[in-house]
## 1
Amino acid sequence: MHANPLTRDQFERTLKSSAALNEIKRPATTYWKDAWRRLRSNPVAMVSMGILALIVILAIVIPFVSPYAYDQQDYTAINQGPSAQHWFGTDSLGRDIFVRCWAGARVSLLIALVATCINVIIGVLYGGISGYFGGRVDMIMMRGVEIIYTIPDLLWVIMLMVVMGSGLNTIIIAIAITGWGSMARLVRGQVLQLKQSEYVMASKTLGAGFGRIIFKHLIPNCMGPIIIDLTFSIPSAIFTEASLSYLGMGIPVPLASWGTLANDGANMLLLYPYQLFFPALLISLTMLGFNLLGDGLRDALDPRLRR
Amino acid sequence: MSESKEKQPLLKIDDLHVSFLTYAGKVQAVRGVSLSMQEGEILAIVGESGCGKSVTAQTILQLNPSPPSVVEGGSIELEGRNLLQLDDAKMRAIRGHEISMIFQDPMTSLNPTMRIGKQIMEAILKHQKVTKKEAYDRAVEMLRLVGLSNPEQRMKQYPFEFSGGMRQRAMIAMALVCRPKILIADEPTTALDVTIQSQIVDLMLDLRQKLKTAILIITHDMGVVADIADRVAVMYAGVIVEKGDVKEIFFHPKHPYTWGLLDSIPRPDTHGERLIPIEGAPPDLIAPPKGCPFAARCDYAMKICHEQMPEITAEGDHEVRCWLCHEFAPKVVNRYTEGKEG
Amino acid sequence: MVKYVIKRLLIAILTLWIILTATFILMKSIPGDPFANEKMILPEIRANMEAKYGLDKPEIEQYFIYMNNLLHGDFGVSFKYKNRSVNDVIATGFPVSCTLGLTACAIGLVLGVSFGILAGVKRGRWPDYLVIFISILGVSVPAFVFASLFQYFFAAKLQWFPVTGWGTLATMVLPSLALGFRMVAYIARMMRTSMLDVLGQDYIKTAKAKGLSQREIIWKHGVRNAIMPVVTVSGSMIASTMVGSFIVENIFNIPGMGKYLVDAVKTSDYTMIMGMTAFYAIVMILMMFLVDILYMLIDPRVKMD
């Protein structure tokens, strides 16, 4: 079988080295590094991230550098189609739709970000407390979430706006205080599970207090699912705002958001379809970006879900 | 032992190679496994986690999802038919009918939303031309045979109404209801309590007597092996390092890995001695060592062990892959080799 | 089993009571109390409302009158229009919304579940990618964009269907599709994930080891288990669509609950909003209760709790 005949000296004993045995063959990697590697290798997620970054940058920059102001009317140029002067055309008051779209992006994104941040804070605290204490506290608190869930977000928001009167702040508050249910459920589920895990038990046995367990063990280990949920709740806030504004219940004029722009455009739909097209495209692109990024993050942060 | 060499084996695996494609590279999980089984025989494949024993077993029924798994070579013959060359329909006629399989975790291996009876009858109705009534009767009979009380009532229950041991019995009933020639049991006792484990082992021995089914049992538990097996194959890093009659393996093991396995189990005749674990971890099968895979952890390793994969040395039915069996190798003296002639 | 049904029923009633109380408190806390402000209300309506809501009585008593009315199926009267009760609006709007909503749900569930199964089974091949594309598009593009696009192309340009209106079969097509498309996307995505999860379970391997064909495994062992999450969400989905869609009904000018509610908000018809919300809550909770019962029937494990 073998080309070379075996020789006796090949049968000399070798020493077993403990160091070699315990040597780790593959480089060590942390959870976050590993997740980042997986995310980077996902082209769809990276492109989405790029698109979202571009939208944010344009929203910040365009209103400063544009020759038009978002509320600047020009009765000599009404309902003009896209051209070199007005890239996205003008509306029925002769306002430049391009600059209005990016000013609207500021409002829509601001509403979404602020409302989502409040959502996360309420959701994490509520869910964390509910899951940590468990038992009766948990049951009552989760019943509360169920009640909020029974009526769709949009109706709650409408009712709150009826009570508080419409306005930018009202929309943010209304979305913020109705949208935290899913986050609370998610965090509660995670905490309930983690609470049972050996390392939390061990930490408790060693005398760690409530605060240490929550901040050192529970919250860091919930970060993955929280970030994933975040990427899905930002577009849903944008969506709620757009729907409200579209129904004419959103932010007041002359402020513009993507929703009010779409509403204006829809009224002109049959005559000037481009007026709806651009804001609708931007909303859809942003939603698409967040949804695809969310999918990518889920794959990257929760490898168990991949098969 | 009296088995005649010229008799065609029931199942013959020859030089089987199976790999998994992962992002890190190709994991060579099974690297040239050869095994054979006779009718009514109980063969145990034993080894630590990740040694390729489950992959080997699942490859027989082609249950490994592909991708990522790829069979890269070898043959699996059931009474002379190469299973690896059968088309999907022919393979389905073998699964559950000629060869069936039970799995490690009876908790998750039964469909939670289907009555036990229906799950058992499904196998009969699939493979045999019988009426529903006959299938029902056979399923009840089978449940009685695996030792479940009130079988008629059990038929109507759902898996969540069963305890772990009862579920494994139901799994065995389901697997054996078509009277297959071979039952593959992949770690059938691992997820169960120790007392239940021995009940399941006894049940399998009892059913082998009654139904003459050959059993291929995959386990890492040498205790279970001693209780149940006729023959044993010790597997390490995708390779079978030693195989033979159960008494040979337990009383005259020749491979240092087998010594290690036997040292690491508690035995009634070793009062006061410490159990000795095997130091280190198995090699990375993405880039398996070119020599003996156990060399790095072996107390008796020689230069050659790191350079060349040892050939099989056979002594009757007892086969070993170890350079220590070579004529040039120094003699090793320990409690497994002493008392044997040189 | 009976115990479980009673327990769910009690929970439903409790939830309903809390929501109704909350709407009452919300409406009472509107700044400037429009109910007490004479200038805001026509005299005939005022008389009407005093009779209905007991506005001259203390608030706690008003609450009991309100609850008592609801208990008798009386949702109140309009705050802006004389001779219009909430019950009238529900009687005209609900059948319209119901028809539209159920049609859309049927489209959503049938197509969504089928697409989800297809994608889960053909994972990583072109049907899967097509379904992923449709579902991403469906959840990313707002309903009003779809509705407007449909209206523009199929009604205004191609003139296959009327632009707006309600009553004939042709008027139903575009709104149902616009409303259903999002559901198709949502359900397909959910069903796909669930299907992949189930197909990775041990009992699927058991079924395969039994010799069942791929088709039998998918239908007998896969779909039945995978459809559970869809059943869970379908209850509230059906409920929320059958009580009306704000956006689609407004775009297509359909006289359903959603249109009336938006009109009520725009005209600050507070009692109308309150009454319609109460009706909304009742329908939602009833549907959720039914889903709980349905769930028990298809998942035997629930009975044990």
## 2
Amino acid sequence: MQNVSLPISDDVIKSLHIGDPVQLSGTMITGRDAAHKWMVETFIKQTRQPEGDDQDVYDAIKLILAGGAIYHCGPVVTGLDTKDYKFAAAGPTTSTREEIYQADVMRHFGMRAVVGKGGMGANTLAACGEMPAVYLHAIGGAAALIARTVVNVKGVHKMDFGVPEAMWVIEVENFPAVVTMDSHGNSLHADIDTSSKAVLDRLVSA
Amino acid sequence: MDDLTEAFVELIRLTSTDLPADVEKSLVSAREQEAQGSAAVGALDTILENVSLARRESLPICQDTGTPIFYVNYPEGWSTRKLRGQIRNAVVEATKQSYLRPNAVDSVTDKNSGNNLGDDAFPTIHFEEVEGDELTVDLMLKGGGCENVGAQYSLPNGPLGAGRDLDGVRKVALDAVQKAQGQGCAPGFLGVAVGGDRGSSFDASKEVLLEKIDDANPDQALADLENRLTDDANEMGIGPMGFGGKTTVLGSKIKGLHRLPASFFVSISYMCWANRQKRMTIQGNSVTYS
């Protein structure tokens, strides 16, 4: 088990290989479907103009994402009335929905890690090689346990996206994950997809 | 019994936080089959630890508490209008108490309602009048990850060489499992409906997941296919979370429906390992949960 601190240095990223279990500590930010669409449309492709607090949120998240990580997660949060936020359940959501955005977001912000579940595709893998960066696979559904590693909810952006889609700034301690895509061009997901497809072909031709 | 709102809140709490014993047992036996030191064992250890923690601390097992799906079997004389109102009130209360994540998003405006109430299908409530004097309500919480990898096929299917027979059903169901990889939070459960129209077929593929893992299918041909499907799926080696391993599917349930001569649909509902379901039974003034 390797301990990895955020932000992550290039040397640490390059030392990680698929199959390595890691424990992540430091500050990261949650972002999923609405957040990725918003980041790409407003600040990367700029197909819509910033409005409301867009620019302020961008300036704030930029500091965390540089050398840092985004977590594909829509948590259950307590303390919504009092703003004394605490994560009750916070497992990963399926990452592949962000495939059309992720590589652009990684390059734009200089990210070093994407945390989620289910793996991502060729564009994200290519970006992992360039940055360098890794994809860290959290255990899907292990939400109560993962929420325990969120020791502090530092704040939240874009609550108008709704609780699951908002961008939560969190401090984690020993957040458990497995490297399933590394900066050396390897993807456990591509490997398993290929090997399972070969078995499927045999099973349906029988 | 007049107002069941509180009883429904408890049903939701239990479903969200307390994984059924047969599901947990099958996860334990999956762990025994996986190689020591593998990522698959690591994933299952984390899953089992999470299941215990959620039960002990009354926390949601998974943050995605899905679309709450209620199956209400009511004796003559109950008002489905009142029951619907009480269920909807209970959903709002359970959301306030953080047993449910606010999950109802208006697809046109993109706004989350914040209290888990959407249109008439959110939460989903199925009503069925039954004989006798016992009211039973089954609740299923099925998250979006596994819902998204569900699939519907129309037989025959050329690329898979799947004809209009049970072997064709096996082939398309295996294709769905291969395409899902770990994204439905494997190791999971397969609910398969054979026949029906597109709508009734998907509904049945979900409802069949209410059966207990050890319940035997009374139709021997379907029972055999269920076992074969589970074995074949596991042969693909996708494993827990798609990390690779021997356990990808923990059980399969298949239901046959009548179909039109022209149509032959096969619907697959994939249920994640966090197979959250509970039953509430009301008889007179007694409320029990199982």
## 3
Amino acid sequence: MGVDYTDLNKVFPNDAYPLPSTDRLVDRAIGNQILSFLDAYSGYNQIPMAISDMIKIVFKTKDTNYFYKAMRFGLKNSGATYKRLMDKVFSHLMGKCVKVYVDDMIVKSPSHLNHFKDLVEVFVALRKHNLRLNLEKCVFGVMSKIFWDSCSPCGRSKQTLKSAGP
Amino acid sequence: MVGEDLDPRIGCDSQIEPIEETKGLEVSSGETLKLSVGLSNGDQAMVEATQKDNADLFTWFATDLLEVDPQVVIHRLSIFKEARYVSKK
């Protein structure tokens, strides 16, 4: 079910928090030996809405009015708020072993042995902030020497990247 | 304001995915763990063990979700003062 927030989205300013570029993310991952892809379980719904703003995302059904307590997808700045959270959760790991693109996370390590240590560190950070993962969408232990598909955020310009290493 | 300006993920099914071959491995909870076919048996066992130790992080129902602490992050709308109510048609 979706609620149309078009009118609401017109009356608040854009959040200028920088969103990452997928290309840069993939470029940086190349060269690491082993990667795991993690997906946050309906990531957006894990972020609370400000109490004073809950009333603004109310919707009507035949017999009751409801409002969401969690952040919604269709709101203009949801992506920025989510990125802000990710940057907080992984502040100590960003650039070390974690890359985040919206609610996809990539854990990258130079060796297999380090990878399990890195995964545990990531899990500790997620648990600390009550975040949950969707096992169905996670892929573990991928070797980055092999090519992979890089999709632009909406899959419009699909391209295949190749490892630059020997 | 169209969908793609609102949210980078609206209207897209694709996410970043490896094209390397993966295989499913059933874990004790009955779910399937996806991992690369290129892993050695030892590494495979490590992945399995790591996932098992953290099984609480992999939830399957929206009701299992906990909320992030509002002290850490909260979503605000900061609506312009001069904004007027609009009735939806």
## 4
Amino acid sequence: MRWGVVTFPGSCDDHDVVDSLRSELGQKVKLLWHKDELAGKFDCIVLPGGFSYGDYLRCGAMARFSPILRGVIDFAQSGGLVLGICNGFQILCESGLLPGALVRNADLQFVCQLVHLRVEETDTPFTAGLRKGQLLKMPVKHGEGCYYADAPTLERLHKNRQILLRYVDAKGKPTTAANPNGSVENIAGICNEARNVFGLMPHPEDACSKLLGSEDGAKIFASIAAGYAQKASAHV
Amino acid sequence: MSDPGQEKLAQSAVAPEIVAAHGITTDEYQKIVKILGREPNYTELGVFSVMWSEHCSYKSSRYHLKNLPTEGPYVLQGPGENAGVVDIGGGLAVAFKIESHNHPSFIEPYQGAATGVGGILRDIFTMGARPVASLNSLRFGSLDHPRTRYLLAGVVAGIGGYGNCIGVPTVGGECYFDECYNANILVNAFTLGIVKKKNIFTGIAKGAGNPVIYVGSKTGRDGIHGATMASESFSGEKEQRRPTVQVGDPFTEKLLLEACLELMEKDFIVGIQDMGAAGLTSSSAEMAGRGGCGVELNLSAVPLRESGMTPYEILLSESQERMLLVAKQGSEDEIRKIFEKWDLDAVVVGRVTDDRQFRALWQGKEVARIPINALTKDAPSYQRPAAPPQHDQVQQLDLSAVNEPKDLGMALKQLLASPNIASKEWIYRQYDQFVRTNTVIAPGADAAVIRVKGTGKGLALTVDGNSRYCYLDPYVGGVVAVAEAARNLACVGARPIGLTDCLNFGSPENPGVMWQFSQVIQGMRDACTALNVPVVSGNVSFYNETDGVPIYPTPTIAMVGLLERVERAVTPWFKEPGDVVALLGRTREELGGSEYLKCVHGLTRGTPPWIDLKMEQAVQRCCIEAIEQELLCSAHDLSDGGLAVALAECCVGGPEKPLGVRIDTHEMIRGDALLFSESQSRIIVSLKEENLVGLEEIAARHNVPLQVIGTVGGSRFVIQPLLQLPVDEIKTIWSTGLSAVLK
């Protein structure tokens, strides 16, 4: 499977995604530069965390106009898998590949902490290897991670079962206390209607090793890789 | 002030009041005239004022700093460079340094703290090292003081705003509150980077004719005379100083970091230095000073952010996110290409000369000509008068007049809720602790631990300093600061490899402060020597006083340790019911200078706890060996608040559910001393019962007192026969002590 990870100016977690995919999951990964057009064959493109172009305007607002993103949007629209983590999620919302928006955390502070996530849907390539209701532990670290969508959009998200992850407490309850940023309905990650684009605020790449406290993030990457392998063998 | 910079060199003498406004004394001015053989012009006066400022020249501290041990078998670069460098084996080394940004942070907390982080990051990647972890040490006034919350919120947001955006995790730190910092807070920032041994760069200019290249942000009028400001005491007019604080742009620094590290993979650089305090002036002069050559700067070529800037302003600007490098001739185009990729300026602004002069040109005319040595090694150095301050009675403490509280449980709760001891999660949750995927032990433990990818090794990092001890006895305070930092490392299982210090004091012109300074240095020296820890870099911040009242002497020690196998690192928290709790070291009746006396009795008195450095080293070695043999489940240093507070932290400080404990002790000392004495050289450990024999054997070999004092488990926190409390209550009090006050 061929992974592409985009480096925008100001990306911070690009190398972390590459490292985790390579050393913890043995995947083939290529770094992509924001000024280039998307060229070559990829099976999954990752938009990593960080502060693309400084995020001085609005998170992700500049990155959506970068040359590489034109290709990423075409790739997504033709069914390619796109994973946006943190700033990547913000970019996906800005570019219209995902509905809704990520706004300033409810307490107006940057938040870095370990959170529990509940898997809400498993019929996507990103969560197929997980169980419905399964709890995952990984960090969030963001200042603008409060997911917002208006009522009609939320209704569509429900109807199409696009909410993939929610912030919950250790017992799996989506309480207010377990919501680190004030996201509507404790939403931590959503996919598009076609289920090939996934954005989430937590960082799976920071949770791929027992030494670092959790391997739950690797389960998302592994799910993507396993789905690909299955498809590849079906084609043989 | 008018600026005669464009007039012919050495034409106009400057008026005495302008000299005084630059912080230059009459004697120093005479020295300048003698060096130049003429009166300086306005531009030159500006150059002298920043280069001879306390901040850049260390003129009051150099005499004392040379007492510190700076050498060791693994030290690759000691003090005097942008950062110290220590070998960690396998072809790798670590570069690290701590630096203060106190005055700017008091004036404008967000930008002051943010640019402090920006500055220390540049010091690290200047050496060719990839920054991988940061720490910070903060001191604020009392939380009752009207300005403290504003300062705390601004400083923390500023540190996070810069560090998070540049993608370097903040993995630890410390924060204390005391009235002595009401009008002069301390913000000390530390960064560590990893560098290939064969790829270390230094700030040196060599090779006449080599181009001097300016890279990074454009130059503006911000931060002019920041270095001079950092070398003065505050008086009532701090608000007016706001324009001397720089404004940070972490995005540009991130680009600069990546561009510089990319450039350093090539063989184009002779030397490189960050433009920090005193900007273009100090970076060029210091590089030429180290290389024994001269430098000629063409100020007309410097990229400017605003029009109409004078040579004086260009030379003294402290605009952030700029670096100066000396390159090999012929590499200019290749260098420009790399910076263009990252959308940054890279402009030749001068060349290396062999005349040992600092020369600046403006529109083809020479506007400054000063011998390099006059700005660097021949800058003034003073052996200032030192005498013990007149507060010696503070050491007197009659414990019999201090009533032991009837309810010791209440006293413990009071301590746990106090902002100095309560959880600092409100602070560190605003920092990205995980980026770079190395963080093995995150903030909240005795020391942070990060892995060194591809080696199996780990690095432990801690920052420590007890200024109340230093106030009561600066020598002992200096010893304890170093010893405790090393003990923090021992608690995670790391052996110390070097330290960097940030020495925050009042005015060196006050003999009492100078005496404190020399005593602290002697204490540090003795502890460093006994514990074999070299000082590899550091920073002195004087003039931390307002209207003549100095802060407590505050040496901040940041120490780095190495773990041969990172997976062996242990945390301070109890792990499982049934584990045995043991105490290494001995508790004595030492309440002088304790957090308990201050918090419960409102007293800052007495002599700080005594410390036997041989015992200290034995306790640390015992702990490290036990961790290396994988005998321990947890280890926690005893410090502020003593045994009771340390045990409470072991029970509730971890990320998992709190655990109770039952302790039985039999020391024949008064109850409050047993619980809250801050006797040094003590570590609480927990372990499986079957490992006790192994621990006893190690303790006996090192002659370390070892007492089994209790068992982990239950839902209560019990210290027989003195107190018992529900462990959930302790958790709540300790977790919310700080955040509740800040709501």
